[in-house]
TrEMBL record:
Keywords tagged on the record: Membrane, Transferase, Transmembrane, Transmembrane helix
Main location: membrane
Cellular component GO terms, alphabetical: membrane
One of the record's GO molecular function terms: phosphotransferase activity, for other substituted phosphate groups
Compartments reported by the entry: Membrane
Name listed for the protein in its UniProt record: Sugar transferase
UniProt keyword annotation of Transmembrane present: yes
Length: 473
């Protein structure tokens, strides 16, 4: 069966992880032998060369020889096949066979090259620790898949589009593990539904992926449905090869061995995307530690000047519009949300579109204005980054109640990526932007031109923007 790009990427990641597991197993074996060897020497059972084990933190040469080739042999024995929802006992024999073959090959190669042979007790410990390490890694992976599959909120929200017969046939052909990884929110028959129905389903169900099974469906209906997905930044997977897109980048993928044309208008899964996720989590953790004095300052200042809770939570729109609770330090008086409509009537809105903006907002108390000026009120959003709701860099999240007021469907494409704490419009002087169209254009430029270097550049530009309170009021 043909492997999808996501599965191939997952296998590559696991293979790199297994190299690390092998090296860590070698170090664990060395540590264990440094404890056991002196005991055996004291008992006088047989003579040991203890100087060989004088540095427990050096990984032996045999491990460096085995680690790079271990994933290749593991793959040869089928270790990386059918990763999802398999029993750990099923992979015990492939692991034992692969580790045994690799160790035997390296030892034989060492003898042919007349290199000093490793101590046999260490080799035994290394084999045992490698097998246990790989099985523990597999156990952790299956636990992860089980927890992810059992939580419907974590499944990919999928809309199936085509005609009823094709959709039913395709769903029936899918294996159980493929179905468990997706949440089918709607089945749309283009023979009976119009494009307005498709748009409404996309907006109301937080659809992440639309799969088009369009055999025997009129081409013009398929094109309009794909354009609706493209405008909103929803991935379109088409079981066809004749669709041209203006924004989305076409690539091929597969599901259950069937070729699919994928039209993406957002960054595709890659090592750069994985690195962005890693930078987000590690960066958020380090920034929380570094900025902890400002957290204390904000806590004391808010408590002294304004009665009520220190933190403010608001439901914001995450990726594909999925709601999450965003954290901030409270900078406004209590019940500020309830006074918003009254304030709009009295003072108007300096920002066109659904987002509210007003200089000298009377709901902000003096210390709140200070922490806003230097973006200290945004620091708790690092917790949102840490748990994966937000990214360090990305379009600013809109309030959930603002989404129905978005007039242009193309503006919803800003929801197709994970929202961030900072983005282009913030480092370019956000108080000068009063037009919602201009704001969204900057966000879409970021999405269309995304790269890891662009994120790093924006992060570096954010530092002076915060220090000098550039564009903040």
């Amino acid at each position: 069966m043909e492997t999808s790009k996501k599965e191939a990427f997952s296998i590559q990641f696991l293979q790199i992880l297994d190299v690390i597991v092998i090296l860590c197993s070698a170090m664990a074996a060395m540590l264990a032998w440094n404890v056991i060897a002196p005991l055996i020497d004291q008992l006088g059972w047989f003579k040991l060369n203890l100087t060989y084990y004088k540095d427990v933190y050096i990984i032996p040469p045999i491990a460096w020889g085995i680690a790079p080739f271990a994933p290749l042999v593991l793959e040869m024995f089928g270790f990386y096949r059918d990763q999802y929802r398999r029993r750990v006992l099923k992979v015990v024999m492939p692991v034992i066979q692969a580790v045994g073959v690799v160790v035997a090959c390296v030892v034989i190669l060492g003898l042919l090259m007349k290199s000093p042979p490793p101590h046999r007790p260490f080799v035994v410990l290394f084999i045992v620790s490698s097998i246990l390490g790989l099985l523990l890694r597999e156990l952790a992976l299956q636990w992860y898949y089980k927890s992810k599959g059992s939580d419907s909120a974590r499944r990919t929200s999928v809309m199936l589009v085509g005609n009823t017969a094709n959709i039913t046939e395709w769903v029936d052909s899918l294996p159980e593990h493929s179905l468990q990884r997706m949440k089918i929110v709607e089945k749309v028959d283009l023979m009976t539904h119009n494009i307005e129905d498709v748009v409404a389903i996309l907006e109301d169900n937080h659809v992440e992926r639309a799969i088009f099974l369009v055999r025997d469906v009129a081409f013009d209906k398929v094109t309009r449905a794909i354009e609706a997905c493209e405008i909103q930044g929803v991935e379109a997977w088409v079981a066809a090869d004749f669709v041209r897109a203006r924004i989305a980048q076409p690539t091929f993928d597969s599901i259950n061995g069937q070729s699919m044309l994928v039209l993406r208008s957002t960054p595709a899964l890659s090592w750069a995307v994985l690195a962005k996720s890693l930078i987000d989590r590690v960066g958020a953790f380090l920034l929380i530690l570094v900025t902890s004095p400002f957290w204390l300052l904000a806590y004391i200042g808010i408590k002294v000047q304004s009665p009520g809770p220190v933190f403010y939570r608001q439901e914001r729109a995450g990726r594909y519009g999925k709601p999450f609770m965003m954290w901030k330090f409270r900078s406004m008086i209590m019940d500020a949300d309830k006074k918003l409509e009254e304030l709009k009537k009295q003072s108007g809105n300096e920002m066109s579109g659904p987002v509210f903006k007003l200089d000298h907002d009377p709901r902000i108390f003096p210390f709140g204005r200070f922490i806003r000026k230097y973006s200290i009120d945004e620091l708790p959003q690092l917790l949102n980054v840490l748990v994966g709701d937000m990214s360090l860099v990305g379009p600013r999240p809109m309030a959930v109640y603002e989404l129905p007021e978005i007039e242009k469907s193309e503006h919803r494409r800003k929801l197709s990526v994970r929202p961030g704490i900072t983005c282009i419009w913030q480092v370019s002087g956000r108080n000068t932007i009063t037009d919602f169209d201009s704001w969204v254009k900057l966000d879409l430029d970021y999405i269309d031109n995304w790269s890891l270097w662009l994120d790093i550049k924006i992060l570096l530009q954010t530092v002076p923007a915060v220090l000098f309170a550039k564009g903040s009021k």
